[in-house]
Amino acid sequence: MRTALFILLLLQSSAAQWQPAAEFILGDTASHLEVTGLCYGANGTVFATGQHYGDSIALYLSALTPAGQKLFEHFRVKGFDEKGLIIRPYDADRFIIVGHSEDTTGTFNVRLVMMGADGTVQWETTFGNDGMVTMEIPKDVAVDQEGNIIIGGITFSSDVRSLLLKFSPTGTLLWSRRSAALSPGNTTLHDVEVGTDGAIYGLSANTFVADSSNGTVTRWDAGGTIQWSRNFDLSFTEERAANLLLSGDTLFIAGSPFITGTPSTAVTLAALKTDGELLRYRTFPLHSNQQSVRDFRLLPGGVLALLDETFLPPHHRLHTMLFTTTFTRFYHDSLLSSFVLNGQFSGISSAGFSVVRHGAGLSRVHYALAGTAVTASAPESFDVGNRFIDRIAVAPPHLAAAGRVVGSMFDRVHVSLFTMLPAAAPSDRNGVPASYEVLSAYPNPFNPSVTLRFRSPADGVAELTVYDLLGRTIAHLLSGPVAAGTHSIVWDAADRSAGPYLARLRLNGRTFTTKLLLAR
Q1: Are residues 299 and 169 in the same domain?
Q2: Alpha-carbon dihedral of residues 124, 48, 36, 383, nearest 10 degrees?
Q3: CATH code at 490?
Q4: Among 5, 229, 359, 461, whose Cα sits 20 to 30 Å from the Cα of 384?
C-alpha cells in the first residue's frame, strides 16, 4: 500500500467554520515520510517533524507560516529516529527537539537540539549508553521557570527503568537519574510536570507486575533527590498522553484501574497534595473492553476536563467528561466510530472550550460552560477528504492536522490550507438564509437511513455524493440547480454494509464534508 501524508493548516476567526484554500507538497518526490510531531511556535508558525523511512536515523523538519509559506525545510537531519521524538516551543524565538538517536558506532542516546525559529541549530547534546544501558528513549519534556529542560523517559538495561534528565538552558547536563520500579516489574516515566519551586513530579507506568500497584507518582527536588514516591492501582497507555496535572499544591491523575488479567473498563481520577498525601480517589465505570486517556485539562473555575477513548468491539468512542475538583461528574457525551479516535481540548476560556476530534475525519465541537451548565454545539466537520488524521496541533486561532490517505503507504507530505468562512447570519424575513450552513446529518450513527441537510443563501448548483473510506463513490444523491433556502436529502443505506462513510457537498464553489456511520 502507498500512503500520502498531509498537514492541514486551519485559520480560525470568530466564525465557526473552516474552508480549504490551497495545498502544498513538502519534501522531494522520493520522500517516504511519516509525520511524527507537530507544534506551533511564535506568530502561528507550525513546525513538523517526520521520519524518513529510507534511512532509519533520518529526521525531516519543516516550518510554515499560517498562510502556508515555507520558512525552511531540512531533509535528513541525521542523528534521530522516530522513537520518542518530541518537538515543542521553548520560547518565542526557539524550539526544542528531543528524540532517541543512534550514532555511527551503534550507540543509542537521548539527543536534545535547540533550534532557532529560522531552523538554525543553536546547540545540541546527547546522553546515554554509559555502560549501564542498551537504549534510552524520551517520553516527555518540560521546562522550568529558569529555562532548564527536564526530560522523562525509559532506559533499557537488564531491566526497564525510568529515566529523568535535567539540562541547563545552554544544553549542559546538570544531573541524571535512573530508577527501578517500586514493585516488581518494569517502569517508564512518561509524564513530567515542574512546580514553581523547581520541584519535579513524574508519573511512571509499571508493567509485568505481580500485584495491583501499577502507577507511581514521584517527586524530586530541583537537585534530583527523590522526596517521595507513591504507588497506585492505576495503569496508563504506552503512548504519550496528559495523565498528570499540577495546579498549585495539588496533583491530579487520570488513568484506569489496574487488575491483573482484566481489561480496563473504567476511568479513575486521583488527587494528591504536593507532599504526597492522597486527597481523593474515584473510579467511573465505562462500557468498554479498554480505555485510553487522550487529553486531561484543568479549566478556569476549577473544572477538570477529560477526553477518553474506549473500545468495545467493533466500536470506538471518544468521551468528553467534565468533573468538579472533588470528582463529581456533571457532564458526559461520546462520539461513536469504527476507527481509533483521538482528540484535544482547545480555545479554553472562562466561557467554555472546544474539542477537536480526529481519526477517520476531523471535526470540532464547542462547549459553552456556565458553572455546571453545559451547552454543546453541533459538530463542525472539516473537509479532509479521504484521509485518516493522525496528529493535530492547536494554537488558537490556528490548528494543524497531519494525516494519510486511507488505503495507501507513507509518501510525500502534503499541506492543505484552510481559511475562515463568514460567520453564519440569521435568515431574512423571507426565510432565505443569509449565509451557508455546513452539511449536517441526523441521526448519526444511523440505520438504515440518514437525512443530510444544508442551507444556501442564493440560487446555485449543488452536488451531493457519498463515498467509502477508500474514496469509492457509493451514491449520487444530488446533482443540479438548487434554490436559495434549506434542503434535506435522505440516503437509504439498507443495501450497504455497516461502517463509516463520507458525504461531500459541493455548493457554489464551496465544499462541505461530514462523516456518516451506518450501525447495524
Answers
A1: yes
A2: 170
A3: 2.60.40.3080
A4: 461
Q: In what order do the strands lie in the sheet with 33-40?
A: 33-40, 46-52, 58-64, 70-78
Mean pLDDT within 441-445? 78
Residue that is written with C-alpha cell 472550550 in the block: 353
E strands along 53-185, which residues?
Answer: 58-64, 70-78, 86-89, 94-102, 108-116, 121-127, 135-143, 149-156, 160-167, 173-179
pTM metric for this prediction: 0.76
Q: Could you tell me which residue, 148 or 413, shows the higher pLDDT?
A: 148
For residues 307 and 240, membership in a common domain is answered with yes
Compute the Cα dihedral for 483, 505, 467, 292 and give only its sign.
Answer: negative
471 within domain boundaries: yes
Note whether 99 and 236 are same-domain residues.
yes
Q: Which residues of 69-83 are buried (b: 16+ CB within 10 A; e: fewer)?
A: eeeeeebebebbbbb
Please indicate whether residue 367 or residue 65 has the higher confidence score (pLDDT): 367
Q: Would 442 be classed as within a structural domain?
A: yes
Integer Cα distance of 136 and 75 in angstroms? 24
For the chain, give the mean pLDDT.
78
Any idea which of 30-34, 98-102, 235-239, 499-503 has the lowest mean pLDDT?
Answer: 30-34
- In 117-265, the DSSP E strands lie at 121-127, 135-143, 149-156, 160-167, 173-179, 186-194, 200-207, 215-220, 226-232, 234-235, 244-247, 250-257
Which CATH number covers residue 206? 2.130.10
pLDDT average, residue stretch 478-499:
84
Tell how far CA 320 is from the center of its chain.
14
CA distances from 369 to 38, 300, 366 (A): 29, 10, 10
Same domain, 88 and 155: yes
Query: CB-hemisphere CA count at 13 Å for 163?
Result: 26
* Domain match, 83 and 191 both: yes
* Burial of residue 239 (number of CB atoms within 10 Å: 0-12, 13-18, 19+): exposed
Angle, alpha carbons 171-88-339 (nearest 5°): 140
Q: Is 427 inside any structural domain? A: no
**Structural domain that includes position 489:** 437-518
State the total domains in the chain: 2
Helix or strand (DSSP H, E) at 478: strand 473-482
Q: Could you give the CA distance from residue 164 to residue 220 in angstroms, rounded to a whole number?
A: 10
The pLDDT value recorded for residue 494 is 86
Q: Read off the pLDDT band of 197 (50, 70, 90).
A: very high
Confidence band, pLDDT 50/70/90 cuts, at residue 135: low
Please report the pLDDT score of residue 269 as a whole number.
Answer: 93
Q: Can you name the residues that pair with 215 across neighbouring β-strands?
A: 205, 232
